[in-house]
Specification:
With about 350 residues, this protein is α/β, with parallel strands linked by helices. It has eleven helices and 17 strands. The protein is globular. Bound molecules: zinc ion (ZN).
Length: about 350
C-alpha cells in the first residue's frame, strides 16, 4: 500500500510517500480502506517534532480519517465488514479510573492515531473496533473525515469544561482554525451569542457565515475594545483560546463574573504575564482541555450526522500532494479543514 511516512522531523521534505506491506488487524481491531483523511495542527507537530516529546518514528501521520471496513481481526465482529465509518482518533487502556468514568482523555495511556501509532495517511489503516463511528446511509466520506478531532476538542472545551448555558456570550479566537469553526457551531447549537476574532476581513466574513453573530479583524481594529463594545459592562462569559500569549492575558480582563477561559493550545507562545487579581475577585475559571471522552465523540458525531453541526472544508488534495496540503494548513488564509483524498473510488 501507499503510505505517507515520516522518518525524521523537519520541513515539508520529510513527508515521503512509500510502499509498505498492507497492515493486518490484530485482536479487537479492524482494517479500513481509507477514503479521506483530514489534516490537523497535530500533523504539523508530528512532522516538525516537539521539544521534549518523542514520537515513534518512522510513523504514518493522520489522526482524522474515514473509509470502509475491509477486514476484521480476531474477536472483532464480521458485521463491520463493508461498513462506512469515521474514526475516533483517541484510544486508551480501557481499565483505569478515568477510562471507567468515560474520561478516556485523562488516561495515562491515552494515545492518538497518527501520533502514538500509525494513522490514516495511507491506503489502509488499522484501528480498534471501539473507535469506529458508523456513518448513516448517504453521509459523505469526506465530511466524515473532517470532524472527529476538532469537534471532539471543541465540544469538550465548551460543554464539559465550561458548561455553557443558553444566552451566554462566548468569544472564540482565530475563527478559521478547525477547532474554532467547530466551537462557533457548537456554541450556537447551545444557544449562545458568539463573537469571533480573525486576521483578515475575509475570515471575519466566513466566521459570520459559519454562525458567529459578531466578528472583529484584529489586524485592523482594537479587538479588545470591540469585544467590550459587544459584551457591555457584564463582560464575556466564556472565552475559547488556543492562541496563548497574544490574547490570553487580555482575555482575563474581558471575562464576566463567574466567567471561564478554556485553552487547548498556545500557538503564539506558552509564556505570558497574567494578572491574577480578576481571577479571584471575579471568581474566574482558567481551564485546560485536550481531546475528550469517547462518549462525547459519539455525542458530537450524532449532531454532525444529523446536520446540526456542519464541518467546513477549506481545500482538497490527493495523497501524493500531502506536502502541498501541509503547506496550505500553515497558511493564514485557511478556513476549515484541509482534506486528503486517499481512494477516489470510495463514495
Ligand atoms: Zn485508561
Amino acid at each position: 500500500m501507499r503510505a505517507v511516512r515520516i522518518h525524521e522531523h523537519g520541513g515539508l521534505e520529510v513527508l515521503r510517500l512509500e510502499d509498505l506491506p498492507d497492515p493486518e488487524p490484530g485482536p479487537g481491531e479492524v482494517r479500513l480502506r481509507v477514503a479521506w483523511a483530514a489534516l490537523n495542527h497535530l500533523d504539523i507537530w508530528v512532522r516538525r517534532g516537539v521539544e521534549g516529546h518523542r514520537f515513534p518514528l518512522p510513523i504514518t501521520p493522520g489522526c482524522d480519517f474515514s473509509g470502509v471496513v475491509d477486514r476484521v481481526g480476531p474477536g472483532a465482529s464480521e458485521a463491520w465488514l463493508g461498513r462506512r465509518v469515521a474514526v475516533a482518533p483517541g484510544f486508551s487502556c480501557g481499565q483505569c479510573l478515568p477510562c471507567a468514568s468515560g474520561r478516556q482523555n485523562l488516561c495515562r495511556k491515552y494515545g492518538i492515531y497518527g501520533e502514538t501509532c500509525d494513522g490514516g495517511n495511507a491506503d489502509y489503516a488499522v484501528v480498534r473496533v471501539e473507535n469506529l463511528l458508523e456513518l448513516p446511509d448517504g453521509f459523505p466520506l469526506d465530511r466524515a473525515a473532517a470532524f472527529p478531532l476538532t469537534y471532539l476538542t471543541a465540544w469538550h472545551m465548551l460543554v464539559d469544561r465550561c458548561e455553557v448555558r443558553p444566552g451566554e456570550k462566548v468569544l472564540i479566537h482565530a475563527a478559521g482554525s478547525g477547532v474554532s469553526v467547530a466551537a462557533t457551531q457548537i456554541a450556537r447549537l447551545w444557544g449562545c451569542e458568539v463573537m469571533v476574532t480573525a486576521g483578515t476581513p475575509e475570515k471575519v466574513q466566513k466566521g459570520l457565515e459559519n454562525g458567529a453573530h459578531h466578528g472583529v479583524d484584529y489586524r485592523r481594529e482594537d479587538w479588545v475594545q470591540a469585544v467590550k463594545d459587544w459584551a457591555g459592562k457584564g463582560g464575556v462569559d466564556v472565552i475559547v483560546d488556543h492562541v496563548g500569549a497574544d490574547t490570553l492575558p487580555q482575555g482575563i480582563w474581558l471575562l464576566a463574573r463567574g466567567g471561564r477561559l478554556v485553552t487547548c493550545g498556545v500557538t503564539s507562545g506558552p509564556l505570558m504575564e497574567v494578572h491574577f487579581a480578576p481571577v479571584f475577585f471575579k471568581s474566574l475559571s482558567i481551564l485546560g482541555s485536550t481531546m475528550g471522552g469517547l462518549g462525547e465523540q459519539h455525542e458530537v458525531a450524532r449532531h454532525v450526522f444529523a446536520g446540526r453541526l456542519k464541518p467546513v472544508v477549506d481545500s482538497r488534495f490527493s495523497l501524493e500532494e500531502v506536502a502541498e496540503a501541509h503547506r496550505r494548513l500553515g497558511e493564514r488564509a485557511v478556513f476549515g479543514k484541509v482534506l486528503l483524498q486517499v481512494d477516489p473510488g470510495l463514495a
